[in-house]
Design goal:
The protein is of the alpha/beta class. Helices cover 44% and strands 13% of the residues. The protein is built from ten helices and seven strands. The radius of gyration is 20 Å and the shape is elongated. The mean pLDDT is 91.
């Protein structure tokens, strides 16, 4: 199976909603890779994922998994350092930060909604897998062609998004306040251009350029707010934006 440019192997089961078969296959996949971590949104969600009915059930299952080197995590119990394999179960795009700052070699994604599945595909270009008759993950015969949305964004606006992504990459993929101020100025200075751009398209283009989910959300949110009539006030010294 292929690896993305960051060296991480991303797998995704292309379904939404409850998927007990994928969870079971993900656990088997972790065992085959000497353990790792299962990540869910919260503790109660983890109970549901593991089909635990009582706290006692949960502790027994957790103990059994730990013997294979598999740990459990949710938002208030972070992924342990050193985990190389991660199964992401029913998480939204906020998991992006966990993935980016972890040291994973492989990540298996089990989405809950269509929107989250689309985000994972845009951000990670995962290999689509299925659960075979033996309960194991297998690469699907039909793999999507991940087409860029670059040509759908006007050239001038795309140039700004590319610049923002490049600047964020310098700072461990975290956009700095200065770039936000310059972006505010560009939105106001070229308002007539930006209001023609679909915020959802901006979001996906930012993800495609490697920006974090947090920054992609912020940038596309500002474009949306502009279209709704908001006026941005950049700090002094940043009024000219990027194009001067």
């Amino acid at each position: 199976m292929n690896q993305k440019e960051d060296g991480v192997e991303y797998l995704l089961v292309d379904t939404t909603g409850v998927n007990d078969d994928a969870v079971a296959a993900g656990i088997a996949w972790l065992r085959d890779h000497d353990g790792g971590c299962i990540l869910a949104p919260e503790r109660q969600a983890m109970w549901n994922v593991l089909q635990a009915r009582t706290d006692g059930d949960f502790k027994k299952i957790e103990g059994a998994l730990s013997r294979y080197g598999i740990s459990l995590a949710w938002k208030r119990r972070g992924v342990p350092r050193g985990a190389r394999s991660l199964v992401v179960v029913y998480m939204d795009k906020t998991v992006d930060e966990e993935i980016r700052y972890g040291d994973f070699e492989r990540v298996f994604l089990i989405p809950w909604t269509e929107g989250e599945s689309d985000w994972f595909k845009t951000a990670y270009n995962p290999i689509i897998v299925t659960v075979d008759e033996n309960g194991e993950l297998a690469q699907d015969d039909c793999q999507p062609v991940y087409a860029s949305v670059k040509d759908e964004v006007p050239e001038s606006q795309d140039g700004i998004l590319q610049f923002l992504a490049q600047e964020a990459a310098v700072y461990d993929n975290q956009m700095q306040w200065r770039e936000y101020e310059r972006f505010k100025a560009d939105l106001m200075n070229y308002r007539s251009e930006w209001i023609q751009v679909d915020p959802e398209l901006v979001f996906h283009r930012c993800a495609e350029l490697g920006m974090s989910a947090k920054d992609a959300d912020e940038i596309s949110g500002m474009v949306k707010q502009l279209g709704e009539g908001r006026r941005f006030r950049p700090k002094g010294g940043f009024e000219e934006g990027f194009r001067h």
